[in-house]
Structures are given as C-alpha cells and as structure tokens.
Amino acid sequence: MDLTHMMFADDLLLFARGDSDSVTFIFSAFSKLSAASGLQAYLHKSEVYIAGVPTDVVDQIVESLGIIKGSFPVKYLGVPLTTRKLSYTECKPLIEKTVARIKSWSARLLSYAGRLQLIKSVLFGIQLYWCQTFVLQKKVMKEVHRICRSFLWTGSEVGSRKGPVSWEQWCLPKSNGRWNLKDLTIWNKAAVMKHCWALSMKQDRLWNRLATKDRLISWNLPIQRSCGLCQVHDETLCHLFFECSYANEIWTAVLQELGIVRGCLSWQEELRWVAKKSRSTRLSNIKCSVAFIETVYAV
Ligand SMILES: [Zn+2]
Questions:
Q1: Does residue 216 carry a pLDDT above 60?
Q2: I need a labelling partner for 104 at 20 to 30 A (CA). Which of 62, 67, 117, 168 fits?
Q3: Ligand 1 center to residue 115 CA distance, Å?
Q4: 207 versus 258: which is more confidently predicted?
Q5: Which InterPro entries does the entry mention (predicted)?
Q6: Of residues 209, 204, 227, 232, the one with CA closest to residue 299
Q7: Is 69 helix (H, G, I), strand (E, B) or coil?
Q8: 250 Cα to the center of ligand 1, angstroms
C-alpha cells in the first residue's frame, strides 16, 4: 500500500520505513513544507510510533526527531485505533465527553426548546464525528440516546423517567411533525459504509486493484496472457489465488505448516475463511490471517 500520509482536520499522520534515513528524509521534507507554508506542528504534542525495528534503531530515530515515543495501540482523541470493533470500555470516552458537555452547560436553566437545540447541534456534532470514524457498539449508542433523552426531558443526564414521546418518534422527519434527530444506529451504519465506498472507489483510494495480465490486456497492453508462475494458463485473479499449480503448492504448504489439513479453496471461499479468522483474537487464528496476507503478497 503506497500510503505516505493521512490527514484529518488539523491532524497529520506521516508514515515511513523503520530506518533512520527514511525517517530523517520524510521529516526534513515536512520541515521544508512547514517553513514554506508557515504552518507549525506542535512537536511536543506529537508522538512517534515504531514497530518491528531493533531497539538501537528505535533509540536512534527517537533521538534524531526529538519527539516522544508513543506506545501501541495508537490513541486518537482518546480512542484506540485498532482494526477490531471497539469494545464498550474503549468507547467510554465518547459517553464521558457527552456527559461532560451536559454537565458543563449552564443549560439546566434552558427551556425545553433550548435543550432540544443543544442536543441537535452539540451532542450530535460529537457523535457524527465518532459515527463516521468507528463502528460503535449498540450498547454505546443506546447509552448516548439515553443521556440525550434524559437531558431533553429533565435537564439532567441522569434519570430514567420515560418521556411522553419515544426517541424513535423524535427521529422522524419534520414533515411527520417530529424533530429529525439522528438515529445513531442507522447513521453509524450508513457513515461507515460511505467510508468503505470511498476507500475502494475514489480516485485516491488506498489500494489499487491487482494488475493481473487479464486486466492489463483489457487496457490494450501488448503482453502475453499466460501466467508468469506456471506458464500454462491465463493469468487471472482466480488463477493466481490459487488455481495455479505453483501458487497452489505454496498455499497448501503454508496451510500444512499451520497444522490445517485441507486443499486450496476458491478465492472467494479463501477470503471468507480468512475474514472469519481475522475476527478472532486467538493466536492460532491471527497466525492464519498473517500467513494468508503474506502468501498473497508473495505470490
Ligand atoms: Zn499459473
């Protein structure tokens, strides 16, 4: 993946190879940009994260940058950046932030209409950001709904008095005589799907589709169709993974090494298999995911 940097609002993530030269080079480019644009980074608020590198190199990099070394998992706005769905505890900062806003408002004196407006503009402002970025647990969204509902009816974040109108009703459009509040569960699903779509379809998407020979030929490039590994069949995605005798032998051997006795499946079936493994935190399943990614990369 040719990913060098990511930006969100005024935050910047830079990626480099884990050696001193690469890091120095990218940092000097960044410093030049900073000098030219006048945009200054808060280095004392920045952190450097390093993985899979010997300790002496880590020390060298940290010393040359003069930036604090952070520890994994990387936390962004108090939330760990992981590939897994966030647990309830990990989402706690969201709930705490929501409650803190309500507590800090001199809003206890607000009228009902004022509270409704505050819920719409401030509380949902926080959640729209969270919902766009993470797949949240239903329990978390229920808790946020409960806090909003309680604040709306009582002016406080605690309280279990049932409102005369259900939250679902409030989420209905104004044309139905309701307030068009966002239903977080639906919103979260839609926002995350929007991200998935952008990642895979937009021009600056993060990954490029594998340029197999059948694809290159469809772009009218004058090349041979035959697979570079077995030289027998046409090179297509399904052929490479793992109909091809060469690739098939590699994946079967890797599976055997993992203690899994089965032949190669079709690409779609293998994807389903590895997707299931990747959802687990068991070491043996993690090994399977890593082995699959490495094999596909190597082939
Ligand atoms: Zn082949």
A1: yes
A2: 168
A3: 65
A4: 258
A5: RVT-Znf (IPR026960)
A6: 227
A7: strand
A8: 12
CA of 242 to the centre of ligand 1 (A): 8
**0.85 exceeded by pTM:** no
Average pLDDT, the chain: 81
Q: How far is CA 229 from CA 181, 237, 241, in A?
A: 57, 13, 12
CA atoms within 13 A on the CB side of 132: 8
- What are the backbone dihedrals phi and psi of residue 166, each rounded to the nearest 5 degrees, phi first? -70, 155
* Residue 251, both tokens: 């994946």
Tell me what percent of the residues of the chain surpass a pLDDT of 90.
Answer: 12
Q: How far is the CA of 243 from the centre of ligand 1 (A)?
A: 7
Q: Are the beta carbons of 91 and 140 closer than 8 angstroms? A: yes
CA of 231 to the centre of ligand 1 (A): 6
Ligand 1 center from residue 2 Cα (angstroms): 26
235 pLDDT more than 80: yes
Q: pLDDT (tens digit, 9 = 90+) per residue, 141-200?
A: 888 888 888 888 777 767 666 666 777 777 777 787 777 777 777 878 887 788 777 776
Q: What share of the chain is helix, strand, coil (3-state, %, to 5)?
A: 55, 5, 35
- Quick one: which of 88, 49, 94 has its CA closest to 67? 49
Residue recorded with tokens 């505890």: 89
Q: How many Å apart are CA 226 and CA 224, to the nearest integer?
A: 6
φ, ψ dihedrals at 6, nearest 5°? -140, 145
Q: Cα of 289 to ligand 1 centre, how many Å?
A: 23
